[in-house]
Amino acid sequence: MATVIGHSQPFIEGRGKNFCRGCLGSELFSALDLGDLPIANELLSSQTSAVEKFPLHLRICSQCGLGQVADVVTPERIFRDYRYLSSMSTTFLKHASDFVNDRIKEEMFVPGDWVLEIASNDGYLLRNFLAHGIKVIGIEPAENVAEISRALGIQTISKFFSSDLARELLAQHGYPRLIIANNVMAHVPDLLDFVEGLGILCGLETQITIENPSLANILVGMQFDTIYHEHYSYLSATAVARISEIKGLRLNKVEELSIHGGSNRYWLTKLESDYLIDSSVVRVSTSEVEKGLFDEAEWANYSSNVSTILNGFQDWLCSASEKPRKIYGYGAAAKASTILNAIDVDPNLFLAIADVSLEKQQKFMPPLGTKVIAPQELFRSNPTDIVIFPWNIKSEIATYLRANLAEDVRLWCAIPFIYEITSK
Ligand SMILES: [Zn+2]
């Protein structure tokens, strides 16, 4: 039985389970129950360290379309040891610089404008605005990550974003021209307070842009390995429109992006602003209904498909014992943790998992106690097969691995089913 830890700040019991953390509606249905799992990004200092597990159950609000898991683990616990650096991926870096270049081309800014990024990580995006002489402020609660951003000259506040912090920022700096909140809304337990903060900082000229993996793609693309405790919410256009409206904001446009296996970029403004509503809002919301986002039977079918995928991966791993194979993983991220924890295999079948992050190396991933090694160690180990877990950047990783490994090493991806990556 999982031990649910105590929490150091007020936590609303039942949110994400008995009622929606977005619209506060009480009609949640079960979409996928993954059982009790460890915190996905938490690595162990030794192979035999105790593993704490927590329930992981995706539910969907049938009123607003927000996917959510119940509040069982506090953000302080999840993010106390955050090791994800955006600048580790060239794909994300290019995505960020493209975004900034587009805004500059649009001539979005006039002198005096400033840009706020919430969850600015190591400054991967804001540094591009800074290079154009635009004032930027980043908010990044993980102190170790914020420090990297400050070294680039980016003013960075190490706090969680909230309505209180929004009031402070407004008093000190006035309304920003642009607010960016990429891949952060999922991590916020008190979603309504977060959106209230956005509303406070949103002047009539302010535009807010939010990127987040789309719940419809998690459904259609079988991306169940993106469901983990640190992702409290799973956004849909329908949910963003509804929740924004509650806090005086309006969804004006939705861009469908290929990054992260299918993300949406939502553009919000003040409810009473003059910005026109783009046809994409209705189009994407309608397609979510058509894809079965609100359909319990569709999710039941999904749940059964997830079991099939996990069984297939488990069988593939087990079949390795019949052949002279040396199977390794690549990418000791949350996606790997969700899959490895949901299967039951002999720990010796999976030899190690390589990752470029120095902070992850020499640690161990639960539950198998799989050691995290440096890529150079992987290259020296003569692997026969490597499973690339971050499928969203699989091409980038495959290119890197192929440049460093013998030609006959097979590269695999486990989602949406175990398959060999054959393109060179
Ligand atoms: Zn709701």
Write a structural description:
Helix content is 31%, strand content 21%. The chain is of the alpha/beta class and 424 residues long. It has a seven-stranded mixed sheet with strand order 6-5-4-7-8-11-10, with helices on both faces. Helix 5 packs parallel to helix 6 (191-201). It starts with 27 loop residues before the first strand and ends with a strand. Mean pLDDT is 89; it is low at 1-10. It binds zinc ion.
* Low-pLDDT windows of residues: 1-10
Number of H- or I-type helical stretches: 13
How far apart lie the N and C ends? 45 Å
Class by alpha and beta content: alpha/beta
> Main beta sheet: strand number and arrangement?
7 strands, mixed
Number of strands: 18
Helix fraction bin: 25-40%
Range of strand content: 15-25%
Average per-residue pLDDT, rounded, comes to 89
Characteristics:
alpha/beta; 7-stranded mixed β-sheet; 18 strands; binds zinc ion; disordered N terminus; 424 residues
Annotate the secondary structure layout:
Blueprint: E1 28-38, E2 53-61, E3 67-69, H1 75-78, H2 90-105, E4 114-118, H3 126-131, E5 135-139, H4 143-150, E6 155-157, H5 163-173, E7 178-182, H6 191-201, E8 207-213, H7 215-220, E9 233-234, H8 237-246, E10 249-257, E11 263-270, H9 280-290, H10 296-318, E12 327-330, H11 334-342, E13 353-354, E14 364-365, E15 370-373, H12 375-380, E16 385-388, H13 394-402, E17 410-413, E18 419-420
Parallel strand pairs: 4-5, 4-7, 5-6, 7-8, 12-13, 12-16, 13-15, 16-17
Antiparallel strand pairs: 1-2, 2-3, 3-9, 8-11, 10-11, 14-15, 17-18
